[in-house]
Amino acid sequence: MIYLDNAATTIVDAEVNDVMITVMQHFYGNPSSSHSFGVEAKTLIEESASTIAKLCKCHQNEIIFTSGGTEAINLLFYNVAHVLKSKYVITSPLEHPAVLESIKQYGLAEKTHFVKLTKDVLPDMNHLEELLHEMPGAFVSLMHVHNESGSLLDIQMVGELCKQYEAVFFSDTVQSMGKSPIDFQAMNLDFAVCSAHKLHGPKGVGFLIKNRAIDFKPQLVGGGQSSGMRAGTENTAGIAGVCKALEIAHQTMSNTHEKLKQFKQYLAHEITTNIPTVQCVGDLQISIPQILTLALPFNDKTQSIHRELDALEFVVSAGSACHSLSDEKSMLNHVCIDNHIPLRISMSKFTTQKEIELFLGALLGLLKE
Amino acid sequence: MIYLDNAATTIVDAEVNDVMITVMQHFYGNPSSSHSFGVEAKTLIEESASTIAKLCKCHQNEIIFTSGGTEAINLLFYNVAHVLKSKYVITSPLEHPAVLESIKQYGLAEKTHFVKLTKDVLPDMNHLEELLHEMPGAFVSLMHVHNESGSLLDIQMVGELCKQYEAVFFSDTVQSMGKSPIDFQAMNLDFAVCSAHKLHGPKGVGFLIKNRAIDFKPQLVGGGQSSGMRAGTENTAGIAGVCKALEIAHQTMSNTHEKLKQFKQYLAHEITTNIPTVQCVGDLQISIPQILTLALPFNDKTQSIHRELDALEFVVSAGSACHSLSDEKSMLNHVCIDNHIPLRISMSKFTTQKEIELFLGALLGLLKE
User: Fold this and answer.
1) Mutant choice from A27, A35, A77, A96 vs B, greatest count of B C-beta within 10 A
2) CA of A68: which chain B residue's CA is closest?
3) What does the alpha-carbon distance between residue B348 and residue A164 come to, in Å, rounded to a whole number?
4) Is the pLDDT of residue A324 over 80?
5) If residue B294 lies in a helix (H) or strand (E), which one and from where to where?
6) Is the dihedral of CA B35, B40, B41, B45 positive or negative?
7) B145 vs B143: CA distance, rounded Å
8) Residues 78-97 of B with CB under 8 A from A
9) pLDDT tens-digit profile of A72-85?
10) Cβ–Cβ of A204/B203 closer than 8 Å?
């Protein structure tokens, strides 16, 4: 199997496995227990939050651990509706379903305005500024890296605009955490989010970063864990796992970036040179190197391409795994590439030159047959 | 360290660790992906649900995996408020904070009626029947095994009463799953719940069992995972882990029951014989053998007993870890054992005779000094 669907999920790093097993075997106390063994588990959570805070340039008490990105986003929108009581929401039609469905779930649909997109699958900055100008104090939700195209938002610029118009700024950083640096304070972020399984951490854990100046209340209630922000016995092994995964991602970020940039350029060049009817989605210069999405013209060969690649044990996707279950309009429709089939190739630090060559050979073979 | 706080949380079984590592390394695909590698992960979830369904005597599609017991209980009460729209809620004042706080969170406080308790920390069945009679179609929430005393509800009898009065019946089975058999159908249960970390599974995963005849909607929204009942990429390793933990618990249930019954009787007898002012909480015959809770008369020696035992590396607790963060009235107050300090000793299949002897020696030493 050649795994090129790392934007959907990633293999857990061996070091992360080890940390989790150590916690499950030796630090398994309940972090809410007042005895020493419980305090040890609680300390482990606090140390994980402290490490993550340093990596994301936020405060330790701004980290709320959750069961993943989706729960974190639900917690956020629950608060947008019930605590922030934002008058306006500004977002894009291509956000993750966790954002778009939360807008409906928490009664925000009527307050929501969609920013126009450029052909590079990015928000139109002029339109965003117009909206911000018309809607002071809006809650803005724009993803950092688009999960289907890899397009990279100029988060610094959006952060500055939000500051200027006194908007509250959330960026869905699920696809960028550990791949592109996040500076929570310098980027003027009020909220950011992490899902461990996107960066070689375990499934079932993640966190929300919340500006500590903003009031919040828990969505899931019970024992008052996580400083009252999220009830339920903390997933200590998962928390230690996401912390370790993020640490490793930061250590390897620049090397991985360079390697995958070359793979992406090479793939894009070879494919479009050999089959000129294939387009690359987005601007390759304004996207993360991990993701390359192709738009294949619809025809007899391309319509079965996903099945054929699957049979050859190349694991790629047509887009977001989460989108696969929803009936939202597709990304290609949104950026006016109609009658095309998307093919998303998403790489990780474990992707090798050999795998890229094998994939390229197979893809060209299938399309040229 | 001698660990006797298994009602708070348990060590993860080595076999469960192994299953989780295998999933994280070899079945890490996103269960929502349509390629074979994703389908494999989805199949693994379905097989886990099927195995659990056989053990709990329910249908496979009645299992909703969550991040643990607290999320499952929140999902349930969210639906009690928004979908079932129950006119009355009947519960006990000694339910877990996840239940008591959910009642407030989802606007059910005014509809809620509390059943009286017996001195054995169990609902008064006559009062329960009176309430059911007055409140047809009520939603009933009564825990199977009380987390602080170990008292065991006659769930079969409550199920029959609920059927007779057309009530919807939820039993918080977090403390009983894997310790006392659950027959979802025969017990007339509509909802039950599991938290993996209470039965040598990982923290951060659990499930709700929901009667399939009852309509439900998701609380956490997004990608439509878990048949639309719970958004968020499934924690496949955790799901395989809770399944394995429950399987092992069922295989070892009767041996563990016999062993711990003897330990409990021995401890209770030795302690109350040596220090007659100590009381056992609840009726030892109507409780699970895993939990023995003592009420120690308040005095100079007992007021520091938890600290002293902790210093000697005996891990026991004063009660529920979750309750430790809330300001609810204590269990001992509720069952009219005032001016006493609770000491909960909670054992597991890993508890040995040697550990019991050492603990007994230390406790008697401290109390008699």
Assistant:
1) A35
2) B232
3) 59
4) no
5) strand B291-297
6) positive
7) 6
8) 96-97
9) 999 999 999 999 99
10) no
* A193 reaches B (C-beta below 8 A): no
**Ordered alpha helix ranges (H), chain B:** 14-26, 36-56, 69-79, 97-105, 125-134, 155-164, 236-274, 305-311, 331-334, 353-368
The interface residues of chain B toward chain A in range 262-291, judged by CB-CB distance below 8 A, are none
Q: CB neighbours (10 Å) of residue B319? A: 19
Q: How many CA atoms lie within 13 A of B302 on its CB side?
A: 15
- According to the model, what pLDDT value does residue A120 have? 93
CA quadruple A25, A27, A33, A35: dihedral sign: positive
pLDDT tens digits along A108-154:
999 999 999 999 999 999 999 999 999 999 999 999 999 999 999 99
Task: With a cut of 80, say whether residue A329 has pLDDT above it.
Answer: no
For chain B, the 3-state helix, strand and coil shares in percent, each to the nearest 5, are 45, 15, 40
Q: What angle do CA B301, B303, B309 make, to 5 degrees?
A: 75
Given this model, what pLDDT does residue B333 score?
81
The residue ranges of chain B whose pLDDT is under 50 are none
Q: Are B64 and B75 in contact (CB under 8 A)?
A: yes
CA distance B89 to B115: 10
If you ran DSSP here, which 8-state letter would residue A39 be given? Answer: H
Cβ–Cβ of A236/B203 closer than 8 Å?
A: yes
pLDDT one-digit tens code per residue, A225-266: 888 999 999 999 999 999 999 999 999 999 999 999 999 999
What is the interface pTM, i.e. ipTM, of the complex? 0.97
State residue B330's pLDDT score.
77
Do residues A354 and B253 touch, judged by C-beta distance below 8 A? Answer: no
Q: How does residue A322 score in pLDDT terms, banded at 50, 70 and 90?
A: low
Q: Which residue of A has its CA nearest to B98?
A: A222
Contact of B312 with chain A, judged by CB distance below 8 Å, is answered with no
User: Is residue A162 flagged as an active site residue?
Assistant: no
A30/B9 touch (CB, cutoff 8 Å), yes or no = yes
Which amino acid belongs to residue A238? G
In this predicted structure, the answer to whether residue A319 has a pLDDT above a threshold of 80 is no
- The answer to whether the CB atoms of A30 and B3 lie below 8 A apart is no
Q: Which residues pair with A170 in a beta bridge?
A: A141, A191
Interface test with B, best of A22, A233, A304, A325 (most B CBs within 10 A): A233
